[in-house]
Design a protein that fits this description.
The structure holds two protein chains of two kinds.
Chain A: H1 2-27, H2 34-56, H3 63-74, H4 78-86, H5 91-121
Chain B: H1 2-22, H2 30-49, H3 57-74, H4 82-111, H5 118-146, H6 161-181, H7 189-205, H8 213-235, H9 238-261, H10 266-271, H11 279-283, H12 295-304, E1 307-312, H13 314-318, H14 322-334, E2 338-343, H15 353-360, E3 368-370, H16 371-374, E4 383-387, H17 396-399, E5 418-423, E6 443-447, H18 450-466
Parallel strand pairs in B: 1-2, 1-4, 2-3, 4-5, 5-6
The chains are: A mainly alpha, B alpha/beta.
């Protein structure tokens, strides 16, 4: 499975790099912080491998909580939203930021709370207080 | 000084996020996962907020409070509604990414177009495309899962569908490339990109039916993660790149698990139009007959069994029968019968859906067995009780070449000594094919609502004990 994952991911990354590189070439110049860009890309590759390694070991029992947890984690876009909402930018831009901030915060709150709620339900034999289940 | 502290906080957040996912490998340590995640998120928010360029605090507070007000009720939904809640939160994630991308584009567009470097513009295009596609796609998926009346439940298929979809995607990509090469070339290009992404999301999900939802939700999860990664490139934030990559990797792994459990490929799920083409096949062949069994008869068989497996499916979720199933489990285990739950990876409407429902009903997870671990021992099972599962126990997947689900890994309940299948009606399953299991000699049908039938079984068992 890892092989398929890696090859798929790799193909996507390669395609992305190819597009970036070729358009950069077509544009004739690569301006800005090129070194920064490349190190961000290597961070992406490393983080993806860590993610695949760590998540490949997640218990199958917990796939639903896993999804709600990663959902909350990817609401880290809250960082970008705060910067856009809170900086001294034109009002229309900040309105876009505020909507994004609202959406991210919703995901953070509901994502973590429901993950917590679900994880608490998983019990082993003996620990499960059987008999008090609601109809 | 503040800059350094902010960076340190971001670094700590990255570590905590990875730990949060690491602890999910076992239900016991998973309780720490949420705390780690919350801590990381709090650090990230506090650090960002303290940056000197953030000056408008009231706006932030209002938006955050709005998120809390909407987020809390969304976390209290019934567990049967978790799939649609998840789809909805993917939609919110996509929306946030799309809006930030849009805001950044117009900010640089108005301020200083030279800031729109090729690299940034590529990231903005990817972020916007994936973000808005995930928004409408996930909204459609959530609507289908929730049974919203104006969104068709069955797959919608029309001629040249894949051609239309692919064409639309190609146009969107072409506009994207145009924007990358020439960021300020046309004022129409960016709005058009947004509109096409939104439309593509809808068209992508329309032809997909219920049982493919676990895969689709996972794919949308990966898209939401990828759009966060792209946002990280736009904003030059490593924290965003890492968190997005973790989310993307998780969505990808889950999609692959789901696809393998159905013996299908990504392209087949997204472009296959499952559940439509096959209906012709079921009309062929002679009339076959079910054997119905009474509650009393089924209860008797359960009483004599030593090893019982229960195979839950989406039908159990629809009927909200998990608590009744738990009562049945109690009755049987109290008699000394061994009861195991066998769960197919794609049972239900999202990965792990059945596990959460059983956990809600306080069924200990050490009695939940995976399909691959149970199949070799199936011959020792006295009674296999199928509750609202259909295609995942259809032996045609092993025996009938040319059958649409041929090759799909199944729970081999047909090898058990006897099978009792609880089924709402006599209709075919999602795949539109008849289930050979129901016509086997050792199979008996119990027709009715899963909740009622399981409840009646439990009552009958209790009566028999008293007698």
């Amino acid at each position: 499975m890892l092989r398929r994952t890696v090859s798929l991911w790799g193909a996507m990354a390669a395609a992305g790099l190819a597009v970036t590189a070729s358009t950069a070439y077509a544009a004739g110049s690569v301006t800005g912080s090129t070194d920064q860009n490349w190190s961000s890309l290597s961070v992406l590759v490393l983080a993806t491998f860590i993610g695949l390694g760590v998540i490949g070991r997640v218990s199958r029992l917990l796939h639903t909580p896993l999804m709600s947890l990663t959902n909350a984690i990817s609401a880290i876009s809250v960082v970008g939203s705060i910067l856009i909402t809170g900086s001294d930018f034109p009002i229309p831009i900040r309105i876009l930021g505020a909507i994004a901030l609202f959406a991210s915060m919703t995901n953070i709150v509901s994502g973590f709370l429901i993950t917590e709620r679900m994880i608490r339900m998983f019990k082993v034999r003996g620990e499960a207080g059987r008999g008090e289940s609601k109809p | 000084m503040i800059q350094t502290l902010v960076e340190i906080a971001y670094l700590a957040a990255i570590i905590l996020f990875i730990l949060a996912l690491y602890w999910m490998n076992d239900p016991k340590s998973a309780r720490k996962s949420v705390s780690a995640g919350v801590a990381a998120m709090a650090l990230a928010i506090a650090a960002t907020w303290s940056r000197p360029e953030v000056v408008h605090h009231v706006w932030i507070i209002i938006a955050l409070l709005g998120g809390v007000v909407v987020g809390i009720p969304l976390s209290r939904v019934a567990l049967t509604a978790v799939p649609q809640r998840t789809a909805l939160s993917h939609a919110f994630g996509g929306l946030a990414a799309g809006l930030v991308g849009t805001a950044k584009y117009y900010l640089w567009f108005g301020d200083d177009p030279t800031e729109l470097t090729t690299f940034r513009m590529t990231a903005i295009v990817v972020e916007t495309l994936l973000g808005f596609l995930t928004l409408t796609g996930s909204l459609m998926a959530a609507g289908k899962l929730h049974g919203v009346s104006w969104i068709p439940q069955r797959p919608v298929i029309y001629p040249f569908q894949n051609f239309t979809n692919l064409g639309l995607l190609l146009i969107a990509l072409a506009i994207g490339v145009f924007l990358i090469v020439n960021p300020t070339g046309s004022v129409l290009a960016f709005p058009l990109l947004i509109a096409l992404s939104l439309a593509f999301g809808v068209l992508l999900i329309i032809p997909i039916g219920g049982a493919d939802m676990p895969t689709v939700i996972s794919i949308l999860n990966a898209y939401a993660g990828l759009s966060a990664v792209a946002m990280g490139f736009v904003l030059d934030s490593r924290l965003l790149v890492v968190a997005g990559a973790l989310d993307g990797a998780s969505g990808l792994i889950l999609s692959i698990i789901m696809c393998r459990a159905m013996n299908r490929s990504f392209t087949n799920v997204l472009f296959g139009g499952f559940g439509q083409v096959q209906e012709v096949a079921s009309d062929a062949g002679e009339e076959r007959h079910y054997k119905e069994e009474t509650i009393e008869g089924a209860a008797q068989a359960l009483e004599m069994a030593r090893l019982v497996i229960i195979v839950p499916g989406y039908g159990m979720a629809v009927a909200h029968a998990q608590h009744r199933v738990a009562e049945l489990y109690d009755q049987l285990t109290a008699r000394g019968t061994t009861v195991k739950f066998v769960i197919h990876p794609v049972a239900g409407r999202m990965p792990g859906h059945m596990n959460v429902l059983l956990a809600e009903a306080d069924i200990p997870y050490d009695d939940i067995v995976e399909m691959d671990d149970m199949n070799p021992d199936m011959a020792q099972v006295d009674v296999a009780l199928i509750i609202g599962a259909n295609d995942v126990v259809n032996p045609a997947a092993k025996e009938k070449k040319g059958c649409p689900i041929y090759g799909m890994p199944i729970i081999e309940a047909h090898r058990a000594k006897s099978v009792f299948a609880i089924k709402r009606g006599k209709s075919t399953g999602f795949a539109g094919i008849e289930n050979d299991l129901y016509f086997r000699d050792e199979t008996f049908m119990l027709f009715g609502d899963a909740k009622d039938v399981v409840g009646a079984l439990t009552k009958q068992l209790a009566v028999d004990v008293a007698a």
